[in-house]
Amino acid sequence: YKTSLTAQSFQAPRISESEKYHIKEKEITIMAKKRVFISFDYTNDKSYKYLLDAWDSNKNLDFVFEDCSADEIMSDNIPTIKAGLTRRINQSDYTLVIVGKEANKIHPDSKEIGYRNWINFEIAQSKKNGNKLVAVKLDKSYESPEQLYSSGASWAMSFTQAAIIKALSEA
To answer: Do the beta carbons of residue 120 and residue 147 sit within 8 Å?
Structure first.
């Protein structure tokens, strides 16, 4: 017993217009990940930022972690740094504040910055831009940046992927 399969006898399944729409909708959803600006103390807490970068490689997350700390802007000029940070904050939907030991420490250029430090500046700019704020303390004893007070920020209860994603999703 022999069967013959020809190109005419085999046809790919037809996709209805509603199925095409559903496929397009999924493509748009996948492409529209929520952008998260990371506010952190580069000198002391960059290892936590690197961990977020590793999580960011997970294609199933609905979030993209962005960073542009003041130390990564190649300038010592305060207005240039402010402009660079503000541009990145304005391109984001959320701001995740990593509250480390030095998060509310007074920066030597605080008068020029207009806030205690760059983290407080980033939080203030995020509020102005309407970003949803999420914060996570690396240790419960660490002092929160003053701009977080009365900001309506959501809190991740620990620095774990599950806790941070939950807080971002609920913000």
So the answer is: yes
